[in-house]
Structure prediction request, 374 residues.
Amino acid sequence: MTAGPSPADPPPVGASPPRRRSQLGLGAWAYDRGEFVSAQAPRLPLSTQGLHYGTAVFEGIRAYRSHDGLHLFRAHEHYARMLRACRMLRITGIPATVGELVDITVELLRMNAHDGDVYVRPLAHKLSLLPGTPPGVSLAGVSDALSITTFGYPTAGDVQEVRCALSAWRRPPRDTLPAQAKIAGGYVTSALACDEARAAGYDDAILLDRSGNVAEATTANVFAVRDGVLVTPPDTGDLLPGITRDTVITLCREAGMTVLERPLSPADLYTAEEVFLTSTGKEVASVVALSGRDIGSGTAGPVAARVAALYRTAVTAQDAQEPAGGESRPEWLTPVLPSEYLGARPAHVPPTPPEFPLPTEHLRQAKGHADDAA
Prediction:
């Protein structure tokens, strides 16, 4: 068994990547089915079950660059959620521990050496029918696969302002589609709602549940500010309990802000002082209008700005200059590379310093999982 190419090897497909990566774009390397390969190399069979039936789970993880290097943010929590979702879909033929998955991701980021903030997309899916399994929709008797890609994804900096529509599409109830997992097939509802909103000139959509209460946006959780209190739908509802949502609730409560988890009606949003969204991709985004009605003053408000400052401090490992800006949370951060190693040519990453050891044993174990599932 091999562990895939080393960081010193050139990408096996196509020309060598440029000496520096721009802030946007796919990393030169990817992890696919037990080994590191050129990001352009993987090819899926046309019979891939996850493609046909949406039997796949994924995560979105951010890595942030700060003064002392690149850090993954809450990667352990993301991978723990992903493994729970994998068990639901009987996806067992992939690295089995959170630690293995985090180590693979760290090594991939070191190989790609993006020179800015990064978005990481792990995807675990059903691959091929095993001998004796009849054709059709199935979870048992189907092999599994895992891929991880990274993208340069700079943060917006200031609080993003978005205009949302209240969607005609409803969030499926959790007894129809598990809400607590990022199951690929379930995102068709979000795609329909987003397409409907953008066709009407909006940036995003907010979906209701079957009871008519607010569920979530297409890929984000919803918060409202009412009488100075933050209110968000409870995580027992038909919504994904986001890790960014949990981060914001934790940081706000530590900062002395009141956060309530209770149902929100559309009227609660229309009459709120502020509404904002939270997600790994959006971070903290202020909803300045909903279905043509301004929220509050029609601009990003002070609460959203404060929440964004708390979040920025947590993800960049830097204590804020302002007292209201919060404190760093090193327990949420996984070091990847120090600053002087970022932006290096991905095909020839400099040797990693002793304080940032490269893991290797897990790669042989991961390849073993892939061989066993083939």
